[in-house]
Design a protein that fits this description.
42% of the residues lie in helices and 24% in strands. By secondary structure, it is of the alpha/beta class. The chain starts with 8 loop residues before the first helix and ends with a helix.
Length: 274
């Protein structure tokens, strides 16, 4: 990598020892230097930026690479530094970036230091964790009968979780051939806003179009107030507890739960002795 006359040898050596990617631009936002780690990084993406060698980027105007309508240009021209962000670049590469001013001892500005840390693996792990949490926090469980599904709703609901709930429930309804859905609302701490409550209601109506009967159990006083404030009236039957909803469904099907007869062990022992 070529040298930049404003970087001392010792500074260059230190920056090249970093495993993270370091770029330097001059006051005109032209790239003037990059460390060895950055060279290796750019080598992976040459097909995206239409160069055959990272050296070809030296002298390039960074605003042309980023575009004139991007946040990068606004940040650099307003000198709102240091600037930190997490960005997606190419092929799923995710970086934490820090952009800082380069200044002399006297405080004269002579360039910019761009520091990129590869967090792709970390972001993928976070995404997997988020997906797992969503999966665990929106279970669809079989009940005492194959055609009854139980959906305990837990925690806070925002737009993302509600969308995940829709996909999961509709998939399981079709896959299991369910006729009845029981939503347990007792574990919901909060719904983000009134529009979310309306969307939840619309989701219930969508499920009903599949021919599935929905029931709600465990409405808390706070949640009832939220639904009323949102102007939503729940048309589906609701019960205080899960057991009551199941008994209602069984009664509809002409069935009922009965305790099994318990044998009198003492009586059996007496008969055996005789």
């Amino acid at each position: 990598m070529r040298k930049w006359e404003k970087l001392q040898y010792e500074t260059t050596a230190v920056l090249n020892s970093f495993t993270d990617n370091v770029f330097i631009a001059d006051t005109d936002l032209k790239l003037v230097w990059m460390n060895e780690a950055a060279e290796k990084l750019i080598s992976k993406f040459t097909h995206h930026i239409k160069v055959s060698d990272p050296e070809e980027l030296i002298g390039i105007d960074l605003t042309k690479m980023h575009g004139k309508e991007t946040r990068f240009l606004r940040v650099m021209t307003m000198h709102d530094l240091p600037y930190r962000a997490t960005i997606n670049i190419f092929d799923g590469y995710v970086a934490d970036i820090v952009i800082s001013n380069l200044e002399t001892k006297e405080g004269d500005h002579y360039g910019y230091l761009l520091f990129w840390r590869d967090v792709t693996t970390e972001e993928k792990r976070k995404e997997r964790d988020r997906a797992l949490i969503e999966e665990l926090s929106t279970p669809v469980l079989p009940s005492i009968m194959d055609n009854i599904l139980f959906v305990p709703l837990i925690g806070n609901f925002d737009e993302s979780r509600l969308e995940h709930l829709k996909e999961t429930v509709l998939h399981e309804v079709v896959r299991r051939g369910a006729d009845y859905l029981i939503f347990d609302m007792s574990g919901i701490r909060a719904i983000e806003n009134n529009s979310m409550i309306a969307q939840f209601h619309n989701f219930n109506e969508t499920v009903a179009l599949t021919g599935v009967e929905t029931y709600f159990v465990g409405f808390t006083r706070e949640l009832v107030k939220s639904f009323i404030a949102g102007g939503v009236k729940v048309e589906s039957k609701s019960f205080p507890h899960y057991r009551q909803a199941v008994l209602h469904i069984l009664k509809q099907q002409g069935m009922e739960l009965k305790k099994a007869a318990v044998k009198d062990k003492n009586k059996d022992r007496k008969n055996n002795i005789e």
